[in-house]
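Quick one: structure tokens for this chain, please?
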Amino acid sequence: MRIAILSQDASLYSTRRLKQAGKQRGHDIRVVNYLRCYMNITSHKPAVVYQGQPLTDIDAVIPRIGASRTFYGTAVVRQFEVMGVFSTNESQAISRSRDKLRCLQILAREGIGLPVTGCAHATEDIDGLIETVGGAPLVIKLLEGTQGIGVVLAETRQAAKSVIEAFRGLDANILVQEFIEEAKGADLRCFVVGGKVIAAMKRQGADGEFRSNLHRGGKAESIKLTPEERSTAVRSSKAMGLRVAGVDLLRSNHGPVVMEVNSSPGLEGIEQATGVDVADKIIEFVEKQSEPKKTADRIPY
């Protein structure tokens, strides 16, 4: 098979591992910087052009779209879909997962466990917003934040009001969520491929840090999921329409709750913590699911 990995940087761990795994399984693997592609949008001969050459011989694509490049990245994925090329995650599913509010609303509609969450833009009723999630302590998040940036733990009502007022001054959209104290600064990353959890790790935040992101000094170890946690991860990825996903859970007193569903989950942390060859699992999934010039689904744009 001819597989294109859509990535801005061929030296990134996840991109390198996917390329390596694909080659080991006998495929022709190409890393394509999607930002340097342009598209010929026509009914009869649609094309994606890269380095002056149309990519007409690609059987499947693996999108690794950066959060800040979602608009153009999903447009390129969508163009491949128009051409009939299989994608591990389709453009609409990537867009859904990148919108944190939309993601939570979809999960809520499906009855999946979530932290109590409030959303606001320019409300004057700050006290009412705080009470929506049960009062302080609470977590305030910028909708546009990634890797723990723009996430604040407000331990008192006054601190919460101050942070909300500051974000309002920036004309920012925010989420306000209950603080799951019993999680003790740890979360679970469940890596889902093709409707199955293939690996899971527990990420523990650094001392004094409630955010568990590995980018912020957190540590990871392999973890055995409960049946409910496994089911929640699979249901969450399915609800978002993602075939490959990283589902982040917290262990709360009322069961697992979903914090985020990531459409381009990193491979480094989970492979090192669990010893699972996640890249190989993804390539194997592509082999089983894709057929030349045929997408698996027709999702309305």
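The chain has three domains: 2-95, 117-179, 182-284.
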